[in-house]
Amino acid sequence: MSEPAEAQRIDLWLWHARFYKTRSLATAIVAKGRIRVTSNGLTRRISKPATLVRAGDTLTLLRNGSIVCLTILALAERRGTATQAQALYQLPDEAQPDASPAQGSRSDDRVSTR
């Protein structure tokens, strides 16, 4: 078995992470210059599908009409299930732990009797 790659083409990574349904669609979006990569503190707009990304890079892209910023956690050798794809990246909202309600709060204990 081969060792995991240290870098991967951006179009292939986007397809493995299930951001686009086909690799051709991922290639077309990248070729239009719609994705930005931040690597080693340097942000650049890319327009070549062969651009390499690594774990730790940050991607900024447009998805369903909203801007998505994500950090690459891992590279994949193949396109897996949705659960496997979600393990490849982290959204900034997921980086911070959820604030737990204060102890002693009784709002959760109330039950409607209607």
UniProtKB/TrEMBL annotation:
Residue ranges annotated for the RNA-binding S4 domain, each copy included: 8-76
RNA-binding keyword on record: yes
Molecular function, one GO term: RNA binding
Residue ranges that the Swiss-Prot or TrEMBL entry lists as coiled coil: none
Gene3D superfamilies named in the record: RNA-binding S4 domain
Domain of life the protein comes from: Bacteria
SMART domains linked: S4
Keywords: RNA-binding, Stress response
Region feature (Disordered): 89-114
Listed name of the protein: Heat shock protein Hsp15
Source organism: Maricaulis salignorans
